[in-house]
Fold:
Amino acid sequence: MDDARSKPSDAWLVEHASDIVSVIRVDGIIEYESPSVERLLGWRPDELLGTQVLDYVHPDDLAHVTDAIRKRIAEPGPVNPPTEFRVRARDGSWHRLAAMSRVTRDTHGTTTLVVNSRDVTHERALEAQLREAQRLESIMQLARAAAHEINNPLAVLMGQLALLDIEQRGNPRIEKSLAAVRRIRDIVARMIRINRIETLVPGSAELPPMLDLRKSSEETRER
Structure:
């Protein structure tokens, strides 16, 4: 194997030094891995040479990656959208990569793919947590709005039951109804007191915790 086929140019490596640069044959055999693969995935480059790249792809992403490789070779334009998929790191964990590639051919006409892969695992996890925080914020707002709508007719109902209780002292049905209405009143009051969810500190890499409605309402009550 000549040097031109075994690794990409120095300029390409310098440009993408922080990402993983791979040279892969059309049959999926790895011909080159940049040193960054060890920092990001734990594999030494020499461990991967000669192995099948699909062996490291998550089973649920195999069809997606296989199809992306086929289309890339069939349409070797200078620009292609990134392909995201999960790969297995040396410690057994799964990392999500966003990969872009270019098709190259040596003097013998042999086709290879030079693939630049960026680890977006943390980025996607953070995005998922932010979406969850936005969903919880919507739930919180809906809960408070619903509580305010319920509160007015609930107050009327409770007043009427209280009058009936005075008129028919000891009536078990009225007492049971009053107990149920008081329970509803307590739930509505807690819903109204929900007025915040935890958010990210600007510039922090920490993910927002799950919203605890009971804890939030109880802390507001204590203040």
Remarks:
- Helices lie at 3-6, 10-15, 36-41, 45-48, 62-74, 121-167, 172-193, 213-222.
- The chain has eight helices and five strands.
